[in-house]
Prior knowledge:
Elements: E1 22-30, E2 40-49, E3 55-62, H1 72-78, H2 82-85, H3 91-95, E4 103-106, H4 109-116, E5 121-124, H5 125-132, H6 141-147, H7 156-159, H8 167-185, H9 192-204, H10 227-235, H11 241-253, E6 256-257, E7 260-261
Parallel strand pairs: 1-4, 4-5
Antiparallel strand pairs: 1-2, 2-3, 6-7
Amino acid sequence: MSDLFPPVPTTLSLFDDRPPPVVRVIDTETAGQKLSEDAVIEIGSVDIDLASGAIVNPMRSFCDPGGAVINPHARRVHRITDAMLDGAPPFAEALKSFAGAPIYAAQRAEFDRSRLRLTGRWLCTHKLALRAFPTLPAHGLQSLIKYVPLGLSPVAPLLAGEHPHRALYDAACTAVLLAAITAKLLPRCADLADFLERAERVSLEPALLARFRFGRHKGVDLARVPDAYLEWLLREPGVDADTLFTARHHLRQRGIRGTRVLPAAAAG
């Protein structure tokens, strides 16, 4: 478990400075191009009250792609046709209905945040699920629905007639995932404000992987990966940020920085 979520004693604040517990869970479908050439073609969201678990206020809108070419692979995934986009509002106009939330959450928040550019705090449910459910075999949204498992009955009316990789469908499922993550990690926090603060920090950092996705120790429990291999990753050029972050984390958990063993007090 990450050191950002150690158990802490519950203490009551003398001041009512708790953040609003409502999070807007949002998803986008795009033309499937690189960021500079991409276009949002559908936005979907729901609001979840983290205190009660209630999922409300579903919203969705198609967006005019503004001349961007829709990648054939992306179209096969989300199945959004040109006819469905006919008459859709421009992106800037469609976005107005989704703006103004103090906190947003998305399964891959870096992707959605870069395309929506909505101001506010952002939570990444993918990175949080890696902390809450590290032993699962996979952490994509559909895998989490299967392996947590997630009960989708609270959002069943929103899923009727829809399919995965449509914006409202994925936003509703991600809201159920966020509720499960909160239930798992909130007991380790002082209160909801503490949980949201730590969840935001996790969301801004690289992902703490449950297992490596390549190499000699691909798919192996990180506890069984040798120190020497973790140290080699830190020296190897071209290693991605998530892998480097994970290697450093586990070396530090073992009391090692580089090849130097840290004193016990500094290694905690």
